[in-house]
Amino acid sequence: MGHREDLLEGAKRCLLAKGFVRTTARDIVRESGTNLASIGYHYGSKDALLAQAYVSLIEGMGGAFEGGGNVDEAAPGSLERFERVWSNIIATMRDPGTVWRLSMEVLALGDRLPEVRDHLAKAQREAGRGLVPLLMGGCEEDVSDETADTLGAFYVTLMTGLIAQWTFDPASAPDGERLAAGLRRVVEAAATDASP
Predict the structure, then answer these.
(1) What is the DSSP string of 46-100?
(2) 73, exposed or middle or buried, with CB in 10 Å at 0-12, 13-18, 19+?
(3) Three-point CA angle 28, 30, 36, nearest 5°
(4) pLDDT for res 103
(5) Planar angle of CA 30, 31, 33, nearest 5 degrees
(6) 158 and 182 Cβ atoms separated by less than 8 Å
(7) DSSP-derived secondary structure for 102-129
(8) CA distances (Å), 195 to each of 79, 105, 182, 188, in order?
(9) Plot region of 44 (φ>0 → left; ψ -120 to 50 → alpha; else → beta)
């Protein structure tokens, strides 16, 4: 690996061990075996590197969201698929010290982490774009900006709420089955309201 990749891997390890605020540039350099100048050269700043490391950690969880293929057994767009996908996502939130606590740190300390927050805000559309095919089928590259900004944004909002609930009170946080039951009620109510 080159310095760029070494820095990214070192930053990921630091994030998981210390979080955004407590990770210093020297921590990353020590963990990656590089030098301070490499951070600026390859990423522009420590915060930009940490934001990229966080995005890379999230992207690495894609396989867990698919649940070893159990998602593909349910029809795209079905409540069964909705339940399976969210059950798989929730399974990644159950362990303390997961990557999701970093999301809560950014939410709580966003004004103290402006470069990280700005970088991650830009990544939200792409996160939604990635969730759409997982739940609805198809390919990520075929998801339009309009779909990413509506359906994708809905899924990202649901994810953010789940992360908050699982971080603060895992005992009462919903599982995939309860989410699917809630969605079923919303859809039934909407269908009733739409009836002539």
Answers:
(1) HHHHHHHHHHHHHHTTHHHHHGGGTTTTS-TT-HHHHHHHHHHHHHTTSSTT-TH
(2) exposed
(3) 65
(4) 83
(5) 65
(6) no
(7) HHHHHHHHGGG-HHHHHHHHHHHHHHHH
(8) 21, 44, 20, 11
(9) left
pLDDT tens digits along 6-64: 999 999 999 999 999 899 999 999 999 999 999 999 999 999 999 899 889 888 887 88
Dig out the tokens for 159 from the structure: 């994810």
How crowded is residue 142: how many other Cβ atoms within 10 Å of its Cβ? 10
Alpha carbon distance 127, 56 (integer Å): 12
- What is residue 195's predicted lDDT score, i.e. its pLDDT? 64
Whole-model pTM: value is 0.84
**Amino acid letter for position 22:** R
SS3 144: coil
Asked if pLDDT for residue 196 goes beyond 70, the answer is: no
